[in-house]
Structures are given as structure tokens and as C-alpha cells.
Amino acid sequence: MRKANLKDILEQGRKSPKGKFGRASKNISIALGREPKSLDLSKRHPFDLALVRIPKGKSLCPYHAHAAESELYLVVSGRGSVRDKDGITEVGPGDAFFFQPGEAHQLTNAGDEDFVYYVIADNPRSGGATGDSCYYPDSGKWAVTTDSVEELIVKGMETDYYDGEE
Known about the structure:
The chain is built from two helices and 13 strands; from the N terminus they run ββααβββββββββββ. By secondary structure, the chain is mostly beta strands. It has a single domain (6-128), classed as Jelly Rolls (Sandwich). Strand 6 (80-84) and strand 7 (87-91) form a beta hairpin.
């Protein structure tokens, strides 16, 4: 059995250049032996578990939809707002919610204290192929996984279906 305690897991932060987006997270799956660079399913785990903290006034990341990944959330403390196709829903301690692939979403701290939650995500990357990408409806960008960890952000222009094909 592998065991980890939250107090022993390093919290890793990430923030955007202008400060609109920010978070700190503890990747519990990695602490339990998940190897993020491996494409070997026995080393990747079938799902990832993280404890995430969004500071006051910040959003986790831009509004986005995963192509292949599902995410289950459980709020621990603080207040958050969750944006989806139906608008904005307030959430708090004990609330759980779920997004399937293709369902755009965004989490934001809606209170005066840190917004803290667990997120469990399935791990669709398998074999030699990448299994997930993200679409950002507000900006028209895509995040495409180029290997087991790195992402390439692209923004295309609308074109004719046959453009460049004939």
C-alpha cells in the first residue's frame, strides 16, 4: 500500500502574468507514485486526485472544456462560483459537482477566504497517443498535449473545409 499525508505534500502554485488566474495545489496522485511523464498505464493511475486552493479574487483558469477528461469536484472550504453553459452557480463546503468531456467550466473564488476543493480527474492519456485537449470558448484557443506533460496552445482562424486540401 502506498500512503501519503497532505501535510507532507508540497503545494505548487501557478498564476497568470496579470494576476487574474491563480491557484496552489497538492498533487496527491504524484505523492502516491503516479509518474506523470509515463505513458505506461500501470504508472499513470486511472485517475488523478489533487487538493486545490484558489486565493481570494482569483479564478483557477480560463473557461474551458476538456475533449476527453471528466472531472469530479468536492468543496472543502470557502465559497466558489462555477461557470458553465447554464450560467454561474455558487458552491460551498460539502457541495459536489461533475463535468464530462465537452462541458465547458470555470471555477472562481467568490468569497473572502481561500476556496478549497478536491478534484478527481480520470486519466484519458493512454498508449502512445494523447487523450485530452482543451478548448477555450472565450478566446477560441486550444491546448493540445504534445507529449505526456507539455501543452501547445494554438488559435486558429475560421476557413473553408477544403482550404489547403486541393
